[in-house]
Amino acid sequence: MGAITLYRIGELSKLAAVSARTIDYYTTIGLIEPAKRSDKNYRLYSDETLQRLERIEELKKDKYTLDEIKANLDSWSKITPEEQISLKLTEIQQHLSQLEREVKELEPVIKQLKPRQADRLYTRLTPHTAACIEALMLLMNKSSLM
Question: What distance in Å separates the CA atoms of residue 110 and residue 47, rounded to the nearest whole number?
Answer without folding.
Answer: 44
